[in-house]
């Protein structure tokens, strides 16, 4: 398996995004900053799974990415509602 130049660039950008998001997650001065960073990490992970589907030419990774993205979105909404204090 050899990665093309575009795939290596995409991988480098994913790693950069993960690094910056982890930095914000650890150093974020407020809780909402940390929640946004965690959501960004979930989006990056979903994009990485979609990239794996392309690299390995296996569509099962797309199913995993879809389920992971949906669960991550639901988790982010739940955390945001808990922080807001709205328990309707």
Walkthrough of the structure:
With 88 residues, this protein is mainly alpha-helical. The protein has one domain (5-84). The chain contains 3 helices and no strands. α1 (5-27) runs antiparallel to α2 and α2 packs antiparallel against α3 (60-84). The longest helix is centred in the middle third of the chain and has 26 residues, at 31-56. The protein is flat, with a radius of gyration of 15 Å. 0% of the residues are buried.
Main sheet: strands, sense, barrel: none
State the end-to-end CA separation.
51 Å
Total count of domains: 1
> Strand fraction band?
under 5%
N to C succession of SSEs: HHH
Q: Residue ranges: pLDDT <50 for 5 or more in a row?
A: none
Helices, by number, come to 3
**Structural class by sheet pairing and helices:** mainly alpha
The radius of gyration computed from the alpha-carbon positions, rounded to a whole number of angstroms, is 15 Å
Shape by Cα distribution: flat
- Write down the overall mean pLDDT: 91
Helix content class: over 70%
Beta strand count = 0
